[in-house]
Each structure stands twice: as structure tokens, then as C-alpha cells.
Amino acid sequence: MLQVRASSAFLPSTSSPSPPSSSQAPAPAPFRLSGKSQRRGGLIAVPQASRVARRSVMAAAGAAAAAPAAAKLEDADALIDSVETFIFDCDGVIWKGDKLIDGVPETLDLLRSKGKRLVFVTNNSTKSRKQYGRKFETLGLSVDEEEIFASSFAAAAYLQSIDFPKDKKVYVIGEEGILKELELAGFQYLGGPTDGDKKIELKPGLYMEHDEDVGAVVVGFDRYFNYYKVQYGTLCIRENPGCLFIATNRDAVTHLTDAQEWAGGGAMVGALLGSTKQEPLVVGKPSTFMMDYLAKKFGITTSQICMVGDRLDTDILFGQNGGCKTLLVLSGVTSLQTLQSPDNSIQPDFYTNQISDFLTLKAATV
Amino acid sequence: MLQVRASSAFLPSTSSPSPPSSSQAPAPAPFRLSGKSQRRGGLIAVPQASRVARRSVMAAAGAAAAAPAAAKLEDADALIDSVETFIFDCDGVIWKGDKLIDGVPETLDLLRSKGKRLVFVTNNSTKSRKQYGRKFETLGLSVDEEEIFASSFAAAAYLQSIDFPKDKKVYVIGEEGILKELELAGFQYLGGPTDGDKKIELKPGLYMEHDEDVGAVVVGFDRYFNYYKVQYGTLCIRENPGCLFIATNRDAVTHLTDAQEWAGGGAMVGALLGSTKQEPLVVGKPSTFMMDYLAKKFGITTSQICMVGDRLDTDILFGQNGGCKTLLVLSGVTSLQTLQSPDNSIQPDFYTNQISDFLTLKAATV
């Protein structure tokens, strides 16, 4: 009853080598349940699983077991020429909060002029692609909705990829972005902000009814998280046969505001894990679902992709898990000191200060 | 910064063999961080770690690696004579919800008349020992407050055991029982029900202040759980040097009402784990902190204790982790079928229908 019951082989995956626990059904190869590496890791301490994952990537590339230190990007042209698609994380790469990072519009223009495909990926599930599109527009960037892959979209895309029945419903712990994407994909849903004010007032014999047609619970960041939602989601996952537990991401922190780091979607997912004892299917980074999805959609192989991000344990690991080239930018949360610390074993292929370095590192000579 | 920083060797423990993760400092032997076995396990599927823990108990006893099937209790006298203290779980053993289980008062009287020490242990942290005392009284049972060990008390007792400084504060995610026990133990606290109605309303630049004197965050079952509490607790654990993360328990389900199973303290603990990426120190079952505490307090060795419970993965594991004899009663959540299922590898020493079987299985011949 408490087993993982994925209804298709199209499972979100990472290259995390952790074996499934005894309460999980093995996932069909080559896909595996994801999120382990993130859960075990810290924000500063390097996740053990990630280290192993990195080793497996290196081993696959025929390199030594120890990851070589990342090289400072010297020849942007060579990197750009070697790939077809750039996937950009947004916060810390394209913008910081509501402020565009220097030189971004020109850099994107340069890459487009060289015929590169651009994709923007974010674990933030509070907005839909359309809402993200408006954010890009506000910042003066011309980005097509189809180029944006938020984890809200990923949740809906995942359900589509497994032919989730249209007569089933999705219970949502999360904000508006998830609801909008589910609606666009034609799925029935309940929960979300509507349940934000509901309370459990203790009365003898109190019993919570739940909808037996719920076939998936999608959990993302939710600042209106409460016990009602925990219990409702738990009942669906535990009592509805085959009900999926899908996490948009397991990020420890998110940037609700720029003033500090806020507890992220990992908190909401952790709560449901604590009450269901079931591992979620993660569709956001570092699971490679989004990468596999877009590789399939655009017909490209992941070795022709360069993942550009500011976080080692989500962005760079995501790229490495997917078999992409990886570029760390120091314009976000990771400092050069953290990258080069002996405690860090997630090494991107290259690092540079910010993406506008593409403009000066030979690449401007189009 | 995100390391486990226990300030004393008196760490809550289980015999879980899981090594600490890379982000945790090793705990001083023989104590280990606890909760792993519970977290990995399911309610029905047997936790892998538990299985190993059981094996280690058996190995220590010189038995074969496979746990022998539990024996039906035939000779209550022999069991009673072989131990000095009985630890009873409450729900499913003494009562069910608000109803006393048949024959309990007579059974407790019998044991007292034989000079046995009786202790009542519960993972429920919503009540203090005093409040539990009133519950026993209401049910017509004469039990001393000192005989009651709820996880709310365990949290306060743990802080006392490590000489938690009186000028530091405790942030509480949980209900009134924890506050009352902290108050009785003379600790300063904040949070609890007071924060139940607080919301995070998004404004640009929003910043949550937190008290830098908080040296421990205690997390228990909390039906008024919300994002404010998650963020406050996370800030304390992540940003206050040495701040402890203490869980009263990690139970997947609790019995808020008898009408159904409700998401338990494991949900609140899981949320904080998801946002801090730090493992909690667990003071409730199956961690043996309470057992070690009372063995020390009463000067008894745990081999002279019999743990009586209705749950395999908390009560029986708790007893086995502590080196006690174990008796499963079938008057609660575990059926004979579950006990004897090939999937179950947590085998108590004995099982019986209910504790009043002590009255009929020879034991009545005092």
C-alpha cells in the first residue's frame, strides 16, 4: 500500500546511485527515483550522493575517480561552438530578484545570432510559464514561453508524459503556478491556495473525507502550508490505490525575497515524506526529467547541451546527471572559494564570473 | 554551519547502524543520532534499517542472523518473574482513544502487587505528564506523574541532561505539552501555539527577524503548523551557532481522533529536515533516550525491563534497541497476520492478545 507506484516507465530521474529503500518498488532502468542526493546534502557540506554521482559521470567519461578542478573559462567561442543548446538557470544567472544581471540581453542576443537554442529552467513552481514570460518581459528580455521550463510546468508535463488519466484529479500543495499549468494541460485539480485557511479543529470522532479520484499529489513551495494540506495529501497518497507523490523540487531554500533565504519546497515535500514514508518523484532539478523532456522535444542529445547555473548541488549536478557540459557562473550564490574548497567535489567543466563574459572571451568576434 | 552540534555526550540514541551522513559530526560512542530507522521505514513495509538493527540485537545475543518468530506468551509468570520493570506504551495497550482496554486496572494491580515497577511511555507530545496524569485519572487508573514518560517530557529531560544553558531559549514547533514541560524544567521558550496564526505576506524586501538566543528548536506534532514556524525554526537551526534540532518523535501517523489515522509528528520534523538538511536528535521512541533516562533514574539495567507495545516499528524496536525483553499486544494497530507476515522482520520475544492475559496465563496465582 505504501509502495511507490509509478504508472509508467517515464520516471523522473537523477544519476543518484542510492538504491531504492526496501519500501520502494525498483524503478524501470534507466530511470531512477530522484531527490536522494539533495536530501542528504547540505547547503554547504557536499552531499555524499552527489559526490558519488559526480564520480559516476567522470567514470563514464573515462576520467579518474577524483573530479578534476573546474577550469576557468578562457575560450567562450570553443564552448559555444561545441554545443547547440544553452540551458540557463534564472535566479543568479539571468537576474537577481527583480534586477537583471549586467550584460544579459546582449549575451542572449549573441547566442541567438550564433543559432543557439536557449532554454530557461527554474525550480520555482509558484509561477506558470506564462507568468515567467511576463517577468522576462518586465526585465526587457524577449523570451518565448516555449523556452521556459519551470517546475510547475514540469509537473504538468510529467503527468502528460505518463498519460495521467483525465478523469483522475490532482491534489496540489503549492501556489498558483502549478494550478495554471495543470489547467493548461487539461487536468482536474483541487487544493492549492483554496486550502490555505483551513484548520483542523479537534472534535471527538473528527474524520477528514478525501476525494478517492485523486491520482496524484503535487507538492511544491507553498507559503500557505498548513496541517490540513498535510493530512489531505497524506490521505490521498496512502489510501488512494496508485496515487503518485510528485515533488516540483526539494530545494532547502528559495528566494521568496532578496532579503534572506527562505525555507524552500524541500520543507513541504519533507513533511509529506514524514507522514507517508514514501519517496517523491521529483520533476525539478537535479532530477533530469526536464532535460530529458526537452531533449526529446527538440530532438537533441544532451551532450550538445551546456547547463549554466549558479548552484553546484542543483544546477551543476542537474547538468552532470543529464550528461551535459556544465558552466558555473559566480554571479549567484556560489563563490570561487566554495567552488575551490577541498570539501566541494561537484566540479563543473568551466566557471566564469557571469554569462556576459561570453561577450569578451573571444566570442564577440562573430 | 549546518553540522550537528550536540553539546554533550548524552545524545539520544538507537541501535540503528546507519552511519551519520557526511554533513553530520560523528556522535560520541556509544550514542548515535537516531531516527534513521523510522524515516526509512514504512508503516507496513519493514524498515530496512530496523531489520539490520534487529539483526544486530540478535547477533549480540548470539542468535542466528534471521530473527526467530515471536512466541505466543504461554507462561506470564515466567516473564513477570524475569523482569523488574514493565514499560507500557499507552494507545493500543492501556486505552484506545478515550476507552480503557478490558482488564487493564486489574492487570496493573497484579503487577504492582508483585512489586513490579510500571512506566508509561508515549510519543505523543501534545500533553505534559501532568495532563497525561489527568487522562489516567479520568479513566479510573491510579498512576503517578513520575511514572509517565511522554515525549514532551523527554524533550525537556534531554535538555536538562545536556545542561542546556538557562539563558538560552527554546523555539517550539508543537503544542502545549512541550511548553508546559519546558516551563517546569525552568527553560525559556518561544513559539508554540502563539505562532499558529502567523502568516508570511510577501512584500519586497521582507525579512524575518529571529532571536539569536535560541539554542534549540524542539519539533513535535502540531496541528497549527504553518510556514511561519518552518521559516522561524529553520533560521534558528541554520543561523544560530550550535542550535540543536530536537524531534519529540518522527511518527508517520498519530491518533488525533479515533476515526482515522492522522499525519503525525514525522510531518513537522520532515519539513524542518527538508529546509535545514540536518538530521534531528530524536528523544521519543524508537530512540532509546527515554529508556536510558529511566534506567539511570531508577538504577536498573535494561535487561530487567520488558517493553510492552502494539507497534512493531516504534514500541518493539524501541525495546530491542534498548536491550529489553519485548511483548507485542494485539489490542492496538498490529494484527497477528502482520506480525507473522514474511515481510515483517521485527519479531518481539512474545506476543499476546492484550495485557489482561497476564491475569489468566498462570500469573493470577500470586
TrEMBL record, chains A, B:
<feature type="region of interest" description="Disordered">
    <location>
        <begin position="1"/>
        <end position="38"/>
    </location>
</feature>
<dbReference type="GO" id="GO:0009853">
    <property type="term" value="P:photorespiration"/>
</dbReference>
<dbReference type="InterPro" id="IPR006349">
    <property type="entry name" value="PGP_euk"/>
</dbReference>
<keyword id="KW-0601">Photorespiration</keyword>
<keyword id="KW-0150">Chloroplast</keyword>
<dbReference type="Pfam" id="PF13344">
    <property type="entry name" value="Hydrolase_6"/>
</dbReference>
<dbReference type="GO" id="GO:0009507">
    <property type="term" value="C:chloroplast"/>
</dbReference>
<keyword id="KW-0597">Phosphoprotein</keyword>
<keyword id="KW-0809">Transit peptide</keyword>
<comment type="function">
    <text>Photorespiratory enzyme that dephosphorylates the 2-phosphoglycolate produced by the RuBisCO oxygenation reaction.</text>
</comment>
<dbReference type="InterPro" id="IPR006357">
    <property type="entry name" value="HAD-SF_hydro_IIA"/>
</dbReference>
<feature type="compositionally biased region" description="Low complexity">
    <location>
        <begin position="1"/>
        <end position="26"/>
    </location>
</feature>
<dbReference type="Pfam" id="PF13242">
    <property type="entry name" value="Hydrolase_like"/>
</dbReference>
<dbReference type="InterPro" id="IPR023214">
    <property type="entry name" value="HAD_sf"/>
</dbReference>
<dbReference type="InterPro" id="IPR036412">
    <property type="entry name" value="HAD-like_sf"/>
</dbReference>
<keyword id="KW-0007">Acetylation</keyword>
<dbReference type="GO" id="GO:0005737">
    <property type="term" value="C:cytoplasm"/>
</dbReference>
<comment type="similarity">
    <text>Belongs to the HAD-like hydrolase superfamily. CbbY/CbbZ/Gph/YieH family.</text>
</comment>
<keyword id="KW-0378">Hydrolase</keyword>
<dbReference type="GO" id="GO:0016791">
    <property type="term" value="F:phosphatase activity"/>
</dbReference>
<keyword id="KW-0934">Plastid</keyword>
<protein>
    <recommendedName>
        <fullName>phosphoglycolate phosphatase</fullName>
        <ecNumber>3.1.3.18</ecNumber>
    </recommendedName>
</protein>
<dbReference type="GO" id="GO:0008967">
    <property type="term" value="F:phosphoglycolate phosphatase activity"/>
</dbReference>
